[in-house]
Amino acid sequence: MIDYENLRKVNEPFFDAFRDMFNRTLASGWYVLGENVERFEAEFAAYCGAAHCVGVGSGLDALILSLKAHDFPPGSEVLVPANTYIASILAVLQCGLRPVLVEPDLRTCNIDPDRLEEQVTPTTVGIMAVHLYGKVCAMDRILEIARRHDLKVFEDCAQAHGARLHGTKAGAFGDCGAFSFYPTKNLGALGDGGAVTTNDRAIAEKIRMLRNYGSAKKYFNEMVGMNSRLDEIQAAFLSHKLTSLDRINVHRRTLADMYHQGLHDDYVKPVIMDGFYDVYHIYNIRHPQRDELKAYLTENGVGTEIHYPVPPYRQKALQGMFDNNAYPITGQIHDTTLSLPISTCHSTEDVTRVIEVMNRFGA
Length: 363
Description:
Elements: H1 7-11, H2 15-28, H3 35-48, E1 52-56, H4 59-68, E2 77-81, H5 86-94, E3 98-102, H6 113-116, E4 124-130, H7 139-149, E5 152-156, E6 164-165, E7 168-169, E8 176-180, E9 194-198, H8 201-210, E10 215-217, E11 220-221, H9 232-242, H10 245-262, E12 276-277, E13 283-286, H11 290-299, H12 328-336, E14 337-340, H13 348-358
Parallel strand pairs: 2-3, 2-4, 4-5, 5-8
Antiparallel strand pairs: 1-9, 6-7, 6-12, 8-9, 10-11, 13-14
Helix pairs in contact: 2-9, 3-9, 4-5, 10-13
């Protein structure tokens, strides 16, 4: 069986270093907001090309804290892609703001700049650009629209560690970039974790306080904050793994190129565009017989996933909030998308096997 993902195999090359880091952190006696977090924050900011990085408890918290730090009036609107993981929308709701869903570009599956401007109203305060699957959004056009309407830009970079557009990395375009280090990510921890990147020192300092009960000095609270701090042990693991992130992304791109070249053209494959350096957190194809294809692959020893089987606007948690018939492009993606194995636990032989099996489907 070719698993869709195997986190033990993904992390096995790092086991010895992780054990050493755990032992050193254990012996240090300092487990929260210490030297490991400070070191990783500096390293990750430099990697992304941002001035500041603040480690937090999860990717969702990174989104929430990015929005909270801007003190938008309650009920303000944030433009969010209709085609995204629900966390992007939950963050807006958790901050007392109103998410306005924008359809994607069917080629990239990312938010469509051509549809953004028509959704701007006098109460719109921001755009959340989600770099889905590891492809950066059309940030040049999004930033132009934001400047024209005086909007803040928030990047959801949970799937785009190291992805680039014209040489600039995800997390360095907007007012804030929110990252997740969930174990399956290209840069994954061994538990939850997240970070916010920004070029605004004041926003970075505000997020540092917000993540720590609204406090810059112990027992003195300047604002209503929360407890969302990147763990010292996870920060140590991430610092070590960060040195391998470019190699991890190159491996994923190698496997993606094999899929591009080898799969029959009846599969709709991810679009390749000039200037974009995609890191393929997810390699999704689309096919009108997606469910039959998924069952066929399972029967033939190939694990797959669906990202995502239910679009956010149809989720029970958001029932009645959106018009379920207003997002046909998003619906088409969700009904036809299938994610193929593409990870550091997969070899070129594995992908060759997947391609052979898939090209027999329907024959």
